Amino acid sequence: MAKSLSKLWMGGLKRLIAAQTKQTRESLKRSAARPARPIAKPSAKLRTTKTRDLPRAGARESRVRPRAAAWAGGDWTRAFHSAPVAPGRLVNHLSYGLYVPPGRALEGLPLVVMLHGCKQSIDEFAEGTRMNLLADRFGFAVVYPEQSKHVHAHRCWHWYDASEQAGGAEARAVVSLVDALVTTHQFDGERVYVAGMSAGAGLASLLALLYPERFAAVGLHSGPAMGEARSGIIAMDVMRRGARQNPVMLVDAAVDVGAYPGMPAIIVHGDSDHVVAPENAEQLAVQFARLNDLLDASGELRVGEVREERKDGVMTRDYIKGGRRVVRLCRVQDLGHAWSGGDDAVPFHSSKGPNACALLWEFFRYQRRVAEAAPARAPLPAAAARQA
């Protein structure tokens, strides 16, 4: 049995790496075919970050400006956050990048947490999504936590394992980082949003389940359905097919929906995604509709309404409650496992489809989390196995 499970796991891992390698090669070919971008000359808008611009973020900082920051006009800070130590570890340093738009006071700024996917660095994620450019335009800060290669060789978050040795510790570290930034820089604690891509979307879902009082809304791009995966092997199966169990039942097993405070969610997925099947997006929409008390335990609509439209190659489905859009699903035609409306030159990002960052912010900007007590919730089971 162990041998067959190992063969299944290795087969799934090989297919995932093959799909990602193919996309990387295609991205590099497109990049080589495109004319080089002109290098911006130094100006007041494109300036080198100085130590006095930001309060010190941690014990170690780097203020080198990568391309991710160079194309935007604000300040990029690289630092480490000392998060709570997980069982079996001596330290838990979470690397991150913080971007602050130019010409704005830090106090009262909204904060967007961006969680990268497997085989991505935060510099690539910031550059490929272009979220920092949107931050310049609309005035919000962006933080990019980065998974360590010492924790996972491909920088994957352990979204499927809520134990304190894996995904649970990673979620707690992100929350600890958010709390520290809100306290240090006086960001608006009622307007903190979390978004992720692929495995990062999986961790964003876990954060929404475990720490709903910390976030005003969640954005999931190319993410897996919640609740079924408990090991790397099952996680691969969920990615390929979606959850085999009823998605509403999975949510009810994870949290006490009656006590849960709700979590507005926007879900973006490519219809041609062969790494994380589009069925996952459909199931996530149902799960967050349940978390927001729009659906009953049988999955039937109990309040509100559902509106759907198709325009310019995008199917949009909105779950409306009290005249307010609470859950939005966007399925993008011909988009693979890549960030919609991103930079083709960066792997796992595509110019196809609408600008996903704009979709997320347009949804986030109307959401606010008023401080309240943490809800009662059922603990998520620990993983039955560990990823190899």
UniProtKB/TrEMBL annotation:
Keywords: Hydrolase, Signal. One of its GO terms (cellular component) is extracellular region. Residues 21-65 are annotated as: Disordered. Pfam families: Esterase_PHB. Residues 50-64 have a biased composition (Basic and acidic residues). GO terms for molecular function: hydrolase activity. This is Esterase, PHB depolymerase family. It comes from Paraburkholderia sartisoli. The lineage of its organism: Bacteria, Pseudomonadati, Pseudomonadota, Betaproteobacteria, Burkholderiales.
